[in-house]
Design a protein that fits this description.
By secondary structure, this protein is an alpha+beta fold. Helices cover about 40% and strands about 35% of the residues. The chain has helices at about 10-25, 50-65, 85, and strands at about 5-10, 30-35, 40-45, 70-75. A four-stranded antiparallel β-sheet has the order 2-3-1-4, covered by helices on one side. The chain starts with a strand and ends in a 9-residue tail after the last helix. The model has no long low-confidence stretch (mean pLDDT about 90). It is found in: Bacterial microcompartment. It comes from Brotocaccenecus cirricatena.
Length: about 100
């Protein structure tokens, strides 16, 4: 089962910096980036749990350096069907 990693930042530039750092730090797949309002942007990645933790740590550090990190979170074993709630491509499907 693939794990999920999320970083929420204030502003688009910290989101790009976080996304860049996450995909460079570990073998993860960028699942999406969504502007959620009020200046907040969420970046999501999928991969194996160790890679996700490494990627989220790197992304959080990059976001802090480029702007403002709001929060970061790792979901190790998401429940079946949980991806429907998120609205991003977070499933195991490899289309």
């Amino acid at each position: 089962m693939r794990s999920w990693g999320f970083i929420e930042v204030v502003g688009y530039i910290p989101a790009v910096a976080a996304a860049d750092a996450m995909v460079k730090a570990a073998d993860v797949t960028l699942a999406g980036c969504e502007v959620i309002g009020g200046g907040y942007v969420t970046v999501a990645v999928t991969g194996e749990i160790g890679a996700i933790r490494t990627a989220v740590d790197a992304g959080a550090a990059a976001a802090k350096q480029a702007g403002q990190l709001h929060c970061a979170h790792v979901i190790a074993r998401p429940a079946e069907g949980a991806a429907k709630v998120v609205g991003l491509k977070l499933s195991d499907d490899k289309e």
